[in-house]
Amino acid sequence: MSENRKSEGARLHLYQGTEIIAWLKNGCLPLESSAGLTYPFVRFDQWQGEHNRPLSQEALDLEWQRQYRALPEAVRGLLSFEHFKTQGGEIEDNVRAAARRHQNGQQAHFDTGWLGQARLLRLFPSALCYHGWRRLAEDFSGFALVLNSRHSALTSSKERPSKLAPVRYGQPYRFKVTADNPFPGLLDDHGSQRDNQEWRLLMPAKTAARHQGQPVVPIGRGLIEAIYWSVATPEESVEALHTLIRQDMRYRSVKLGRVVPDAHQWQLSFQDIT
């Protein structure tokens, strides 16, 4: 199995820590919040610094007009608009500061409140994704669940709308909410992550199924096709998985495997168990 291979058919992989065994026993997959996932890009405007942004002449002219109209009528009768614009010093500084505030307030930005309402699954086409095993499966101590991406549990419905789509890398910001971009910022990532070929399942927290108050994806028969562990997965967690496979009819057809370092090169390889 090549480390960089594409998804076989409709397979996508969910990397989790050992706590996933408890979720499997309860018949659901936990959805995560978007907190931190888009940092720092979703707040790009916070680090630009208003004085580093070029002030457009249009914004400056509009502010001069706004400030002039705000003058008492008696003052405007004595001071023409052209003369008012020639004022320097503190007056000009105040006009420029106000123009920047108006201009920057009108700039497109991400709606962090809306993003906070999203819940998601992070999925990957390869069972040998180094990022998945290192970061999401907690330094090779967790599991990778092989999911059928065409299963109804991952399909949008009227009652539970969702969006399953590949992540874009290093692309221009998209701020508008659309059917293809329901939570702007959550289907984008830095260009250096391109090799991960990540997909994300997005849905509103308020319409997601719940288990003990936690938004989840219910596990139906056929959703999970296989489960893999790796070199640092605790033996007791692997044994708990074997027990679950034997006892729970939902997982009787699930295949098992292990991901280990390749014997010849700096890559990962797959060992079939069942």
Envelope shape: elongated
Strand order of the largest sheet: 1-5-12-13-14
H/E element sequence: EHEEHHHHHEHEEEEEEEEHEE
Main pleated-sheet profile: 5 strands, mixed
Number of domain units: 2
Provide the structure class: alpha+beta
Low-confidence stretches: 1-8
Average residue-wise pLDDT: 88
Helix content: 25-40%
Beta strand count: 14
Cα distance, first to last residue?
16 Å
Q: From the alpha-carbon coordinates, what is the Rg to the nearest angstrom? A: 27 Å
- Helix segment tally: 8
Give the strand content.
15-25%
What does this entry look like structurally?
This protein has 274 residues and is of the alpha+beta class. Helix content is 26%, strand content 23%. The chain folds into two domains: 11-38 and 111-272, no CATH class; 43-105, no CATH class. It has helices spanning 20-25, 57-69, 73-78, 81-85, 89-105, 112-115, 130-136, 235-247, and strands spanning 11-16, 28-30, 32-33, 118-123, 143-148, 163-166, 168-169, 188-189, 199-204, 209-211, 214-218, 224-230, 255-261, 268-272. Strands 1-5-12-13-14 form a five-stranded mixed sheet, with helices on one face. Strand 12 (224-230), helix 8 (235-247) and strand 13 (255-261) form a beta-alpha-beta unit. The radius of gyration is 27 Å and the shape is elongated. Residues 1-8 have low confidence and may be disordered.
